[in-house]
Amino acid sequence: MTSPLPTRTHNCRRAISPRPHLHHHTYSPQLAILSPVNEIGLRSPLGGEAGPSSCRSLRKDTPEVERLVTRVRAGLELGVAPKLIPEGEGGTYVLFDAAKRPVAIFKPSDEEPPSLNNPKKHAESPSRKGIIPGDGAIRETAAYLLDRGWAGVPPTTMLEIRHPVFGPGCKVGSVQEWIHDSEAAGSYGASLFSTADVHRIGILDVRTLNTDRHDGNMLVLRQSESSRLKLIPIDHGFVLPAEPGEAFFDWLNWPQTRLPFSPDELEYIARIDIDADIKMLRKLGLNSDSLAAYRMATVLLKIAAAAGLTLHDIGEMVCRSATYSDRPSALEDLAEDARGCEPFWDEFEALTVELVAARKAAASLPKPSPAASLRLSGGIGASVGVNASTAKSQLRSELHMASPSMHKSSSVETIFAAV
Ligand SMILES: Nc1ncnc2c1ncn2[C@@H]1O[C@H](COP(=O)(O)OP(=O)(O)OP(=O)(O)O)[C@@H](O)[C@H]1O
Ligand SMILES: [Mg+2]
After folding, report:
1. What is the pTM of this model?
2. Looking at CB atoms within 10 Å, which of 100, 158, 362, 399 has the fewest?
3. Domain boundaries defined on the chain
4. Closest residue by CA, ligand 1 atom 30
């Protein structure tokens, strides 16, 4: 007999209080930049004794970042001037070391578009929903700290810099290691990139709901010993939005995304420690809506990857359709369907398992009829029949093996008990 989809034991949509996440915040970007400074601890202040040009760290950093800052400071203290570069919409400067070689990119917070101080006069540039201009340095640093070398985000931190080119005061912003001899990914055919590079950047972008992954924000490095190309993700000022509706991935239709994740990629995803990440992101100064959106995207990534979905499948669930951009993404639907539930995260996780099982069943059908595709895209409660039901019980055991810690709550078991 065909099993119906599990019915929910309560109508969550109308239950209890509105969820205290994903609403608009108004707060000062300047405060957001400065608050972690005190929390994390300042080095010696950038006082008069430091001369007309110098810098100071705004946080305690990894050794590789410390080495970068030392080189940046040496160049500044010799008086080598930061140079504004024409690419990009923000005020982006190359910093040089003592030998006058490019060493880092500096993006002052008060020059992000649409700020009035933006030297490229992009004061009217539309900003992303759920991202407050001026917070870019926090987001750039967050991407580096979340990535920790996995996808290759170059060492990045927040610095306060003084130099006559910036006038009498100091500028606060992100500093990222300069990648020598690179070109934008858009200058190459996507098929030239390795599957591992594309998957790793994709995993980072899904977790962080990157709203700005266009092909100019991936650099290509020609590895000297071979003709192999290495992709390097840059420009993370628009990651971790407080609203999940504007994720944008240029890699979404690259062929590598349709290949399965490798065992080490699956292991990496299963090991992502969401609670530890959120603790770090909160300390950096990200607001609670961004943290909630991070958790949603990462829970979806974990469940979908463990179930055997591809990066392409997952990217499609996270992004809105290019054709119908006013329609919410599957991720947004999940959040909406779980809204008001107590506990929200149990419901969100259970609904995600359901949706992933339905997608998996659909993917394993020989050729879904247009009518079935329509039903599948009709929402989480759409009828998907016996295949989804079978897929769901397989998924339960696969998920348990792949990521037992995801299932410490009973919600997944409860929802399956009804099948
Ligand atoms: N770490 C880096 N190493 C080398 N070049 C870099 C690095 N970061 C940025 N660039 C160069 O500077 C340009 C502008 O930087 P970035 O993309 O970060 O700024 P942006 O103003 O935010 O751009 P966008 O218009 O994409 O929003 C890049 O397109 C790239 O050419
Ligand atoms: Mg850019």
Report:
1. 0.81
2. 100
3. 12-22+181-417, 29-177
4. 87
